[in-house]
Amino acid sequence: MIISLLVILLDQLSKTAVVYYFQRGESTPVLGNFFRLTYILNPGGVFGSKLGSQNFYTIISVLALMVTSWFFFKTKSRETCLRVGLCMVLGGAVGNLIDRLRFGEVVDFLDFDFFNISLLPSKVLFFNFPGFHLDRWPVFNLADSFVLIGVVFVMVHLLKSSKSTSQKSEIQPN
Question: What's the pLDDT tens digit per position in 110-148?
């Protein structure tokens, strides 16, 4: 749980600094055009997705916290990779929930120009996909980063545990 508290602290300190030193919409290059600090308020979800109202995202955040907390307390202490990952997800979720409760939106400020993504328009069964082009990644924050890293830790744990479970079942006779 110390990891969760550190994630919350880092996230909230960084957001407080951005809100204090930047005007909304202001962008400052750090590493040229590749990395900028850009202060925005995100009313939606991950990468600015808008699947529902602001209340929808607050409710989803609370539910995610409850489920992640339940998984954390059900895990064994020797499952380090899983527990660290869950702590990162918890800390990031709490960090963004604090913003939603304070501002009604989430403070985002990390602005990177990674590789471009282009998906051509297509039709799959009865669905028409209009295509998609991303030439600059959506602005995000430390909480988002920790949630993503935490999910990777959880996935690594699940892959390792499913591999060891399948190896044990191959060894044991029927």
Answer: 999 987 778 788 887 877 878 777 788 899 999 999 999
Annotated active-site residue in 11, 99, 108, 111: 108
Which tens digit of pLDDT belongs to each residue from 161-174?
Answer: 877 666 555 555 55
C-alpha–C-alpha distance, residues 173 and 163, integer Å: 18
Q: Which residues contact 4 (CB under 8 A, 6 or more apart)?
A: 87, 88, 90, 91, 94
Give yes or no for residue 43 having a pLDDT over 60: yes
Q: Which of 11, 99, 111, 144 is catalytic?
A: 144
Q: Is-catalytic flag, 144?
A: yes
Tokens at residue 29, please?
Answer: 């290059």
Active-site residue, 11 included: no
